[in-house]
Design goal:
2 domains; EC 6.1.1.20; nucleotide-binding; protein biosynthesis; 42% helix; binds 3,4-dihydroxyphenylalanine; BirA Bifunctional Protein, domain 2; alpha+beta; Phe-tRNA_ligase_II_N
């Protein structure tokens, strides 16, 4: 029995196969174990010698099993290390490269245009106080304009800003005139989404304050932005419009040729001359903060626009929801080059 057991152990070439041999001989109902069980029926003097014999056999089988198990385990580990070894002579696989989101690209273009014109770049909070998003911008609680900007309210009475115009107020409270600033960021509206509406989107806000700033400066600035975006031939159009924080107010559009050879007016945003009530609200806030009232009597213009509109036309993206769905089939088209 010892001989056949040793042969079988030698032949076992996997740990599973070895386990079967182990069970067969030294398991609970294995052949050796059974043999030991028969000892009780033997007369005492025989029992002793026979028992010693069987134990020698069992020890030999067990030793062979242990040794084989160690060998097989070492071989398995070697194979694993081998398979994980790095062959430094193989050619590299390369890593997929990321890319700038189309909205970031449009923002970068816009910011470059305005910093060239001497504007500072400011950033501000998305969770905002009602006062900065509405009241200080001449939008009291009863104003119908609030219905145009359905609002996400927080339980503590604050809100998700509905536009970047809050930054007009924050910037003027922090900085003395004269100033030129642009501010980019996310804005939120509580409304149903469709191909041209998202509950979260982006804006670029601009504000210029000084002495004797006029509507002509505003028009010249928007025209300069249009030329920066679409080249020397770009045309701009202004139409009277109403926003509580400007007077007069206007909407502006840019006429341009998109990469697919279409020419169209692109309604881009709103603008106007800063309303005196806004300057007053700013001075009130400044006074509360122990700062001098420097804004009443100043003149200025402001504008706000949506980079999504520019990006949709520039890149031929038909649905605003594609920007934020993180679908690699869409975003994968914006890998690599940074322009
Ligand atoms: N805040 C306005 C909106 O979200 C856009 C706007 C209009 C901004 C006129 C301005 C402005 O600064 O002068 O609809």
């Amino acid at each position: 029995m010892q001989q056949t057991a040793i042969q079988e152990i030698t032949a076992a070439d996997t740990l599973d196969a070895l386990q079967l041999v182990k069970t067969k001989y030294v398991g609970k109902s294995g052949l050796v174990t059974k043999e030991l069980g028969t000892l009780g029926k033997l007369p005492p003097e025989e029992r002793k010698t026979r028992g010693a014999e069987i134990n020698v056999i069992r020890a030999a089988i067990q030793a062979a099993l242990d040794e084989k198990e160690a060998t097989l385990k070492r071989a398995a580990l070697d194979a694993k290390l081998q398979s994980e070894a790095i062959d430094v002579t193989l050619p590299g696989l390369g890593l997929p490269s990321g890319g700038l989101h189309p909205i970031s690209r449009v923002y970068d273009d816009l910011i470059a245009i305005f910093t060239r014109m001497g504007y500072e770049v400011a950033e501000g909070p998305e969770v905002e106080e009602e006062h900065y998003n509405f009241e200080a911008l001449n939008i009291p609680w009863y104003h119908p304009a609030r219905e145009l900007q359905d609002t996400f309210w927080l339980e503590d009475g604050r809100l998700l800003r509905t536009h970047t115009s809050n930054m007009q107020i924050r910037y003027m409270v922090e900085h003395d005139p004269d100033l030129k600033m642009v501010s980019r960021g996310k804005v939120y509206r509580y409304e149903a989404t469709d191909a041209t509406h998202e509950a979260m989107f982006h804006q670029l806000e601009g504000l210029v304050v000084g002495d004797g700033i006029s509507m002509a400066d505003l028009k010249g600035t928007i025209a300069e932005m249009a030329r920066g975006l679409y080249g020397a031939g770009a045309k701009v159009r202004f139409q009277p419009s109403y926003y509580p924080f400007v007077e007069p107010g206007a909407d502006f559009a840019i006429y341009w040729n998109n990469p697919r050879g279409e020419s169209k007016w692109l309604e881009l945003g709103g603008c106007g001359m800063v309303h005196p009530n806004v300057f007053k609200a700013v001075d009130d806030l400044r006074e509360q903060a122990g700062k001098p009232r420097l804004y009443e009597g100043k003149t200025g213009f402001a504008f706000g626009l949506g980079p999504e509109r520019i990006a949709m036309l520039k890149y031929g993206i038909p649905d605003i929801r594609y920007f934020y769905a993180n679908d690699p089939r869409v975003m994968g088209q914006f890998r690599g080059e940074l322009g």
